[in-house]
User: Fold these one by one.
Assistant:
Number 1:
Amino acid sequence: MMTSRSDDRLEPPCTDCEVVTVPARQGLEAVDILRRGAAGDAVGLVLHDDGGATLGFLVPAGTAAAWDVPGSTCTETDGRGLRPTPEPPVAGSDWLLPPGEADLATDPAVLREALGEAQRMIEAADSCS
């Protein structure tokens, strides 16, 4: 069911979302970068695994076809879609940025930029050690 943007209580299901998975360190840096950005709310829903090794950013459908960021993967949902509910949609995960605290999906171009910047920051920090 599609809903009006003016009705915040009824968000449409994220049936056209895919998931970009990245190492947790790079993903956490990217979340910080996106939250500090000009828009301040450029980051969508984000999942983390129970072990804390990876983060998953929800992105619009079609992202996987052109996703080419080294060290990350983009997984299609094969039309199954994801629903923004308090319960995480993937077993063994939890929300880092849950429904109600973020937009549904992160713009892939903005995410690509943030992941690149995050990787450069990590490399610079590691080279100082």
Number 2:
Amino acid sequence: MIAVVACVFLASRGCDGRSRSVFAAYGDPESTRLELNVASCNETPTAKVVESDTEVRVQVTSGRWLGRNGDDCADGVVVTLNAPLGTRTVVDQSTGETVEVSPADPLAPPK
């Protein structure tokens, strides 16, 4: 009940989520898997991707943060691209900045 009231109260402020900046990205040129790291403090981020021949634009959002405290603010989002990353540039839609893509984590699940 409290969450419903909070959502109704915050509806005009975007209770469905807010944009998050990508601070790290991991992937391999031959893979369709792209891992994104954002600071959303355990808010279950989600990502939307728009692909072209030259770039991959990512928009990450998460739910509203209602005063949670804690040191663990790094969250990850994995997206599956329609085609391997190749030489395409990854752009954070929320900032317009290019995100450097580091080699994928060797402990991550297979491609």
Number 3:
Amino acid sequence: MAINLTPTEIVLGTGGLLALVWMWRAGARRARRAAETARASVRVVSLAGRVLLTTAGMVGAQWLIVTHTTDLTLRLVALALPDMIAAYVLTRALTVTELGTTRRRGDRR
């Protein structure tokens, strides 16, 4: 059995296959992007939960110390230590340590 194809049919078939591969890859990229977006939103919610839990623990400890002790040094430490930690974290977060990356696409990390 012989198959006789004209050059036009070969070009159309090849073009159709290329379009199919292109659409498949675009769909995979879109799915990867959607998965990354979902992961990023979960990270934000998880971070917010940890921040709230830590805050509740610190406020609870401060409340206990302020209401149940008369030692001024202990009160000052209980109130100043969380402020120092917050200042350190904010300073680290807002400090620019690198102005840009000089890496190119094929460079190692």
Number 4:
Amino acid sequence: MSPGRDRGPGPFVVTLVVDLPIAKPDALDVIAFVSDGAIENAGTAHPRVGLGRGTWAEVQIPKFADPPPLAVDIWSEESWDAAATEAARLADALRRVGWTVRGPRADEV
């Protein structure tokens, strides 16, 4: 990735787009499973899956029963590059379990 992308304080975010009809709790379960992470703040309005030091994933579902896609936002407190690296890792892991994901691949970061 290009140096100098990070402008100002974080957090920084990279979004994956998933073409899959899945409920938010189920999506978080799968993300936790493939990343060997844990769901934090389960049962609240802001659940997330920790991916590593200072990085996490949040699921944004369509509003008002709109069809997919849904968004998986990968956040980093460190940098945009850290978010992009974790997003690529997560995208590759989700593809391995059959999800259709639009976003970076590990070899693109």
